[in-house]
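Bug report

Summary: structure tokens for SDR family oxidoreductase differ between web form and batch submission.
Environment: batch mode, default settings.
Steps: 1) Submit the sequence below via batch. 2) Compare with the web form result.

Sequence submitted:
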Amino acid sequence: MAQQQTVIVTGGASGIGLAVVEAILAEGWRAVVADLEQRNLDRCRDVLSPSNNRVRFERMNVADEDEVVRTVAACEAEFGPITGVVNSAGIGRDVPALDTSVDLFRRMLEVNLIGSFIVSREAAKLMQVRGSGSIVNIASVSGVIGNRGRVAYGASKGGVITMTKVMAVELASLGIRVNAIAPGPIETPLVQEVHTPEVRAAWMTTVPQRRYGTPDEIAGAAIFLLDQRKSSYITGQTICVDGGFSIAGILDPAPDMPVSEAPGAGHR
């Protein structure tokens, strides 16, 4: 019989994190839902009540090292061996580089990069005893290519991608795999609130599939990377789940987009 999987999901009470938790439970595995916001945890507890014997809820600030150390140790001791981690907790803001404060930049790094590192480090210390484990970091296409207004966010997610590679190399001999997922535009509740029609139109000119992704599509990639049977020889990789955004060049115009010419084009 395959080993029972127990996966910590940070930022697990909403958005992409919640979709990952639901996918974990659908596999018959167990999940630790770790989130900073108590109201999100309470709402998540109601949503997941049919599976409550396979779910543990933890209020945790990933940027607080002492809190992470205590929480991960308690989950291991009281809920079962931790076999996987999905680092989904993160923050983001679109601010032009020249308007970005050092405080904002530091905060992005503390949560998105350092927080993911602390959780990964503490889980890996426990995984190494068993000689197996899988860590999945949620990065972003903004860490792969330059997106306007995302100097702090993009730097933090680019750091996550490099951290993924380094930890994959260091932990491979311990039987621990480390990979990342770089989502493109994903239809989460937060995105629905903050993406204006203009922002959506801009994405539609650059995503070959001409749509936003869903949290379930990110969760599917996470399950694949967590599952030792399906991805045992994959480590150090970043999978872009972005509708082709990160590899696209010139696209055909969207159906409702007028075709424009540069000044002087066609008049040589």
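Above is the batch result. After comparison, the two runs are identical; trailing whitespace caused the diff. The chain has one domain: 6-245. Residues 102-130 form the longest helix (29 residues).
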